Amino acid sequence: MLSKDQIARYSRQLILPEVGVKGQEKLLRASVLVIGAGGLGSPSALYLAAAGVGTIGILDREAVTLSNLHRQLLHGTGDVGRPKSLSARSRLNALNPEVSVIALQASLDASNARELLQPYDLVLDGADNFPSRYLANDACVLMGKPLVHGGVVHFDAQVMTVRPRVSACFRCVFPEPPAPGAIPGCEEAGVLGAVAGVVGSLMAHEALKVLLGIGEPLVNRLLVFEGRAGRFREVPVRRNPSCAVCGDAPTIRELREEGAVCATTTPHPALQTPEHAMAKSSTTARQR
Ligand SMILES: [Zn+2]
What we know:
This protein is an alpha/beta fold. It is 34% helix and 16% strand. Strands 3-2-1-4-5-6-7-8 form an 8-stranded mixed sheet, with helices on both faces. It is globular and about 50 Å long. Zinc ion binds at residues 169, 171-172, 240, 243, 245-246.
């Protein structure tokens, strides 16, 4: 049963027939792990908390810097120097004290990924580096957890939802990470904060659809936002039978880190996404 305050707080989504009291109760019971409290994780986590997702894990080992603030809206000027996971928890608790926010001051690695992901119903990947991104994908596939992927650089961004072993995973679309060092972070490549806001919001929207079991999540569809033109385009993708983690004869059965992998396999030729397009010109992007 929802309390009087809950009915008031969530009233504008409760009146949506697709949500209703049952949907709201689903959200209150749901748990989402947000990897990275940065440009993507900030809007995502804010919308998830506002919507009443009951438990939100915030995984980030970094501290807030002044240069984060133009896009990482979880943090304020007074948070500079503070661990992002703690700053995020304060902000999310202020927004919605009903939400249980778990601050995880760590980075994802092969040794902790299973333990970190295990308690959550869904994983939202706003990581700022490729090893974490591939590890999150592989862990979600191996553990059967839905994953919402997002990436952003410059004015361009992408989002996709993965239903493990049902739809294309991140590795089906991008079999291997770019060569280490080929891709600078947002610090070098630059990003417009509002573009991260567009995609971070879409990521939260995807997560809510999956948790509620409504609408059509972006499965087998990579949604690309071209910010300069103000245009979205959709790239159909599909499961790759030779995918190393979800294919017919997977070679990844245990988690491993991708730090030393070279970009020997190119992504689907129809794709010209922010990261790989930039990787080709050696001037790109980590996502945040
Ligand atoms: Zn795959």
